[in-house]
Amino acid sequence: MAARSVIALVSVAEVIATDLADHLERRGHDVRAARQPWEAESLLSEKGIDVVVVGDSVSQAEGRDLLRRHGGEGGPDFILICRPADLVDKVLALELGAADVVESPLNVRELAARVGGLLARRGRSAGELIVLENATVDLRSAIVMHRSGTEEQLSPGQVALLRLFLASPRKVLTRDDIIAAAPAENAEAFDRSIDSRIVRLRRKLDTETITTIRGAGYRFDPPTQFAD
After folding, report:
1. CA–CA dist 181, 228 (Å, integer)
2. What is the pLDDT of residues 38-94, one digit of tens each?
3. Predicted pLDDT of residue 63
4. How far, in Å, CA of 190 to CA of 196, rounded?
5. Prior bond to 105 cis, omega within 30?
6. 136 has which bridge partners?
7. Which end of the chain has fewer CB atoms at under 10 Å, N or C?
8. Which domains does the chain have, with CATH numbers?
9. pLDDT at 40
């Protein structure tokens, strides 16, 4: 199993840090925190930190100092949070090698996505993202991210069922196909249980891409993003 990516949060406001850590940990990453810049020194001196998020309670000079000492080739990627008026400091941070600079107030889900993008570019823990009409699914972490901003967790059985459909686009799968490849999570894997499993999966994904073919089975019709 690949090592978990490590994200360090330095002086990030507690309400943001708690929510961000929850987003990242549910996606399989380790999160470490330092409340003060001086606490960050020992944390960032450790090997294996992939991304550092520096909060806007740190002065821009302190943030740039951390970037100079611990960034650069072979070091972690830095995301600095800055206040909207700090345009000059934002440009300086980018010129010094910050991977990203985001303005506060910020959206935690967007910040988590930016962290994920940096990890993917480093070749670490890239998610398996499936874009449907009204939601995006991260198969690796089994999370459904709705356009409304809410998230839901898929069960292992639902992940197996979705993977089966993704592996056979536009192909009619019979009930026997589904039972064999994606069995239910309990002993009630009878023919009549398949309908309810499909209904629950459709509802959780908020999708119309899984069609019932009367008397035959079910078919996954990919949205345009999946078109060959």
Report:
1. 24
2. 888 888 888 789 999 998 888 778 888 888 888 877 789 999 988 776 677 788 888
3. 83
4. 11
5. yes
6. 131, 145
7. N
8. 6-126 (3.40.50.2300), 130-226 (1.10.10.10)
9. 84
